[in-house]
Amino acid sequence: MSGFGRTVAGAPAVFRAGCSDCRSRFVLAAQALRLVMGASERTTFYSFTCPDCGSSVRKPAGERIVELLTHGGVRTLRLHSTV
Fold first, then answer.
1. Of 12, 30, 34, 73, whose Cβ has the fewest other Cβ atoms within 10 Å?
2. 33: nearest Cα among 20, 17, 22, 21
């Protein structure tokens, strides 16, 4: 994600994103994204479907991205370790 969410007093957050397959760039509402938080950086990512080509896109999410997505209302799935 190149640019991140912004909210305007009561308006839903929107996020700028890009597709790895078709290279299209677009704006997505928080509802179009999903954040998956794993036990490590390798298992923490966000995903969405490209509105232009329909590809499933998955990108890594560092601490700052996680913070912005969670504060922006993106659905979050937390993976639990079985160890």
1. 12
2. 17
Residue 71, SS3? helix
Question: d(Cα 61, Cα 36) in Å, to the nearest integer?
Answer: 9
CB atoms within 10 A of CB 73: 15
Q: How many CB atoms lie within 10 A of CB 52?
A: 13
| Average of per-residue pLDDT across 41-58 | 95
Structure tokens given for 12: 């839903």
On whether the CB atoms of residues 80 and 49 are closer than 8 A, the answer is: no
Angstrom distance (rounded) from CA 15 to CA 10: 16
